[in-house]
Request: fold
Amino acid sequence: MAVSFTFPSARPIGLVDFAWSPMFEAALSLRVVAEPKRAPLHLPWVRRCRDLPADLQDEIRALFRPFHGTFVPGIFEAALQGDHATFADELGTLAALPDDTVALELSFAYGGIECTTFFDDDEFVLDDPDYRARVLRGAPDEHMRGLAELAFDDPGALRDRYVRLLERYWEAAFDDEWERILPRIEADATAGARALVTSGLGGLVRELLPEGRWDPERNAVIVDKDWERTCDVGERGGLLFVPTVYGWPCVLIDVAEPWPASVIFPLRDLRTPEVPHASDHEVVAGHRALGDETRLQITRLVAEDPRSTKELAELLSLSDSAISRHLKILEAAGIVTSARDGYFVLYRLVPERLDVLSRALRSTLGLAGAASGDLPALPVSVPRAR
Reply:
């Protein structure tokens, strides 16, 4: 089974856009704080949030623990329809959502996806006693059933709790975090836009969405899921690609109105958080050469004065052949160099090579500042079901 986004042509640049939302990202991060075991890559952020006031932590767990897995209520996506509004603007959008919209989205989350279907008309489902009964039966515990009942009986009060929680969390912690991760999110959006212009939707999918594939015969972006749905992007007025940090490890998909059709995917460097650095081989070869007591002694001796194989053999009480083997390893790593001086071949230290190895080691460990101005690496999204 799969979710398919079909396009009227193979290069529908006008139907693809990129978006991000501080409020939506904050909501995704709150899932991590509420259920840290589900997102081990984000444990550094979880640890930072342990300093939040105890009552705020309790409210986070109470209101965001239900939103695990691949479902996030669309009420937090409302701001994706705008043009990168501020967090305060987005919070105002959330606070102004109709009660029925809030009740429907939250009941999906509290009762579990199993209690819902794709409704032809969501307008009247809230008045269906069978639907309410399914939601309450689907709630996994008493706390969740209490939230579900409140969603049906007083959705406005529940919405206001989420607004207050997000506002406190933003001021206490996430404002600075958003400033830190926004350049990475913008970088992936820029990379996607470039791929779209140069290589079409196939290039965009290859660049940003390895979990998906481009079907040129159908002009469709396809993402395998455990549910089936086809979304006509032309009829919906476009498709949003939304890079996320805290949505990891899932690719979240929304095809339900009134929210924009969207694919919310983890940043590229979160899919492969550890990749070989260009300097790794150099670091390993150089330090392997120095990682032997005898070779370290040889290096210290030739740092004092150029020396021959025989002199080193005498100083270290080893055979000429043993010294030669060690010198070959050091010379291959560029740590020593040799030159004939009359009858003897003298070995000298290459101090510049040690400087290079030191810089390479600091770089591969992330301890050296990037002279190129590259963005700092992050420390540390399977489509969303309905």
DSSP finds 15 helices and ten strands in the chain. Residues 369-386 have pLDDT under 50 and may be disordered.
